[in-house]
Amino acid sequence: MQQSHVRRLAATFLLSASVIAGGVGLSSAQQTPATDTLQASIFATSCADLSGEAVETLRNLTLDHADAEFRGLPSAMVVLDSDSEVEISLVTMLDSPHSIVIGDPNSPVACGDIGGHVPGDDDDDSDIEVGLWPWNDSGYFGIAHIEGENDLDDDDDDSNTEIDIEVAVPNQ
């Protein structure tokens, strides 16, 4: 009876020690993002039919504060962002298939089809949010905020559109 008590005590000690050691490892390990810069492009296709060349190249997604010290939980994902202005109207992007591609267009890490509920107010400017989902189980995901002219009666397809993107990057 005493031998089983000693075994349980030893097993409890080993389990506690491994949990403590694992916790120390987690708190002192600093995760790094898989990348700190990503390409972003607009294609005149859906994500499911991604082909051809980009119709617009957006500013690269980068860390907002690349020189800042990483603090907090090591499991926290960093977010890359990009703000771009493109010479393609929101109307054009909504009236025919368009998508936002994140990463190398030949092997993207995330993609999102442009579309969504457009506010029906009297203002000619509208904005939509587009979800960006992981491509090939990359772990990258995000959102794009697109704001531009949405006047269907306007024949000016050259109006500029603002595209702000945020993408969460998995840790290595």
Describe the structure.
With 172 residues, this protein is of the alpha+beta class. A 10-stranded antiparallel β-sheet has the order 1-4-5-10-9-8-7-6-2-3. The chain folds into 2 domains: 1-30; 33-169, no CATH class. Strand 6 (99-102) and strand 7 (110-113) form a beta hairpin. Helices cover 19% and strands 33% of the residues. It is built from 2 helices and 10 strands; from the N terminus they run αβββββαβββββ. Residues 3-30 have low confidence and may be disordered.
Question: What attributes characterize this protein structure?
Answer:
172 residues, alpha+beta, 2 domains, ten-stranded antiparallel sheet, disordered N terminus
Please bin the fraction of helical residues: 10-25%
Describe the biggest sheet? 10 strands, antiparallel
| Class by alpha and beta content | alpha+beta
> What is the subunit arrangement here?
single chain
Strand content: 25-35%
Radius of gyration: 23 Å
Strand order of the largest sheet: 1-4-5-10-9-8-7-6-2-3
Short précis:
This protein is α+β, with helices and mostly antiparallel strands.
